[in-house]
Design goal:
The protein is built from five helices and six strands. A hairpin with a 2-residue loop joins strand 4 and strand 5. By secondary structure, it is of the alpha+beta class. It starts with 11 loop residues before the first helix and ends with a helix. The chain is elongated and about 70 Å long. A two-stranded antiparallel sheet has the order 1-2. A two-stranded antiparallel ribbon has the order 3-6. A two-stranded antiparallel sheet has the order 4-5.
């Protein structure tokens, strides 16, 4: 623990702050409710039950861009435009289906593989953040995913 006293000396206030952050004079404690509380609780639960990791890679999306252009014309009569997000959700769902150990959560000392592949994506809204979820994304066509994204955006 690094103290706030001279030479990083640990002071009584530092110890109290570990137990009660409001004990520090420059800390304001805010009560959260509603959507922000739900977001916080879900993010905390997620961080406690899944192993965080980051995978960075590059992919040639030339064929995806061509397919999207073709689908714009094909889907015009349905008043739906294929989005990059829909392609990303579909590709992520396929990757999770191909690598089921990545779609798992810790429960106690065991790893539970999740059968359903549900993909959430973050959406900024005026007073916070929402995470709509495309449920069973691996079982849906690109058109179904796109249509669902559009419907959720309207809501």
């Amino acid at each position: 623990m690094k103290g706030s006293g001279k030479g990083d000396k640990v002071l009584e206030a530092d110890v109290k702050a570990l137990v009660d952050p409001a004990a520090l004079p420059d800390v304001q404690v805010a009560t959260i409710t509603g959507m922000r509380k739900a977001i916080g609780q879900r993010m905390l639960k997620s961080s406690q039950t899944t192993a965080p990791f980051t995978l960075t890679t590059e992919a040639d999306a030339t064929q995806t861009v061509k397919l999207r252009q073709e689908l714009v014309s094909e889907w015009r009569k349905e008043s739906v435009r294929p989005t990059a997000l829909a392609f990303l959700i579909k590709a992520s769902a396929k990757a999770l289906r191909d690598h089921p150990l990545l779609n798992a959560r810790w429960v106690g000392k065991t790893l539970h593989l999740i059968k359903d592949i549900n993909i959430g994506y973050a959406v900024a809204i005026p007073n916070g953040l929402m995470v709509p979820v495309v449920r069973q994304a691996d079982r849906k066509s690109l058109f179904e995913i796109t249509h669902e994204i559009v419907d959720m955006a309207k809501k």
